[in-house]
Amino acid sequence: MSPPAVLPSGYSPARALDQPQPVYPETALGTGLAVRVTVDLEIDDRGSVVKAAAPFVDAEKPIPWNLYHSFQNAALEAARTLRFQPSTQNGKPARDHTRLVIEVRPPKLRPRPTGGP
Fold it and tell me: Is 95 within 8 Å of 14 (Cβ atoms)?
């Protein structure tokens, strides 16, 4: 096991102010796939995402090749809307890079009303 990373003196990393809310891809409805997408973000000194990439996609079940990019895009769209508390270096806002894992889950099914008089 590697030793914990040591942050530079006077550095505070960027922190997400909210949780990503990905929209489940319409093309994947009915598959039941829950997918984890690793997203690398570049955050500016105001806390806005200026660059996003999704290098890894993972799921417990195999992901059909035609859905891979749909899940990747859902996570990237959600990540680009996030706001961050900017990182600071010696008390001044600074650009930062961070990595998140965003879960893209199927929507919960609403129970159907039962018949009655």
Answer: no
